[in-house]
C-alpha cells in the first residue's frame, strides 16, 4: 500500500559542496558563491543549509541509512533545484505567467490526498525528491508553473511536442540568465537545463498531471 502511494505521487508530481571561489562574468570573482544566475548569487551556505535540512529529515526515517546512501549527490541536487527554479521563474515571467499561493496550496492538497495524508506526502517527497518538509511548497510551486507556462505557450505538456516547446522556452530563459556555476559543482547546460554533473532532466523532475486542478481554477 505504501509503495502504491509513493508510485501515485511520483506520477502525479513527477519532479555540491563548493570551493570558496566562483569566477563569473569574465574574470570577476564571487567568493562564497555556488552559482551566479542573472547576476544574483546563490551562496554555498544556502545550498548547504537546504542539504542539511534534508539530512536531518532523513535521520528520522526508518530507512535513514538507505536514504543517505541513495542521495549521495544531495548538494548538487539542491543547487540544481535552486538554479532550475530561477530559470523557470524567468521563463514564466517572459510568458506572462504568475503563480499565487492559493494555487500552490491547491496542488499540495491534491498531492496530500493522493499520497494518503501529510505524513505520507512528507515521506514521498523526502524519499523520491530529496525534499525536506519545509521545502515542499517551494518544490510543488513548479507543479503550478510548468502547466501554466505550457498553457501560455499554447501547448500540452503531456505531449512530446509540448515538452519540446516548454524545453525550448526554458533553454532560452537559461541562456538569458548567463548562468555561471562554481567548477566544483560542474557546469550548467543551457540546452538540457541542468548541471552537467547531475542527471535531472526537467521533464522527469517535474511533470504536469492530467486530472489535477487547473492552475488558477
Report what the structure shows.
56% of the residues lie in helices and 11% in strands. With 217 residues, the protein is mainly alpha-helical. It has a three-stranded antiparallel β-sheet. A two-stranded antiparallel ribbon has the order 1-2. A hairpin with a 2-residue loop joins β3 and β4.
Defining traits:
9 helices, two-stranded antiparallel sheet, 217 residues, three-stranded antiparallel beta sheet, mainly alpha
Neighbour order of strands in the largest sheet:
4-3-5
Q: Can you write the helix and strand succession as a string?
A: HEEEEHHHHHHHEEEH
Structural class: mainly alpha
Roughly what fraction of the amino acids lie in strands?
Answer: 5-15%
Unreliable residue runs:
4-29, 206-217
Shape: globular
User: What is the distance, rounded to the nearest whole angstrom, between the alpha carbons of the first and last residues?
Assistant: 31 Å
How many strand segments? 7
Please tell me the total number of domains: 1
Helix fraction, binned, reads 55-70%
- Overall pLDDT level: 82
**Individual helix count:** 9
Largest sheet: 3 strands, antiparallel
